[in-house]
Amino acid sequence: MPSAPSRLCSRDTRVLVTINALPLAVGVLLSCSTTLGEISLYGRLTLATGWALTQLVVLVGGAWWYEARAASSGEPEPTTTASQPTGGTW
After folding, report:
1. SS3 state of residue 3
2. Which of 2, 41, 55, 88 is the most buried (most CB within 10 A)?
C-alpha cells in the first residue's frame, strides 16, 4: 500500500493532467472548425488566439501549483556541506 505522500503526489499528478487536458481538448475541437476560430473577440484577437493564450495561462498556473505542492510535500531537504556552518562554536 502506498504511503500518504505518494498517494497525494499521484492525486496531484492526475489533477494537473486533467486541468491541462480539458483546454487542450477544446483547442483541438476549435482547430477542426476554422469558422469558430475566426470569431473576433476584441480587435484582432480571435477566439483561437484567445483560447491558445488561455491554454498557456492554465499550463503555467498548473505547473506553478504542482511545483508548490511538490515542494511542500513534507520531504526533508537534502543537507549539503555548503549549508552547514563552518568554524567552531562560540
Report:
1. coil
2. 55
Residues 61 and 20 sit within 8 Å (Cβ to Cβ): no
Per the listing, cell 505522500 goes with: 5
pLDDT in tens, 21-66: 888 888 888 888 888 888 888 888 888 888 889 999 999 998 898 8
87 burial via Cβ count (<10 Å: 0-12, 13-18, 19+): exposed
Tell me what percent of the chain is helix, strand and coil, each rounded to the nearest 5.
Answer: 70, 5, 25
Q: What are phi and psi for residue 83, nearest 5 degrees?
A: -85, -10
Three-state DSSP at 33 gives coil
Exposure of 50 in the CB half-sphere (CA atoms within 13 A): 12
Q: Which of 26, 49, 25 is nearest to 37 (CA)?
A: 49
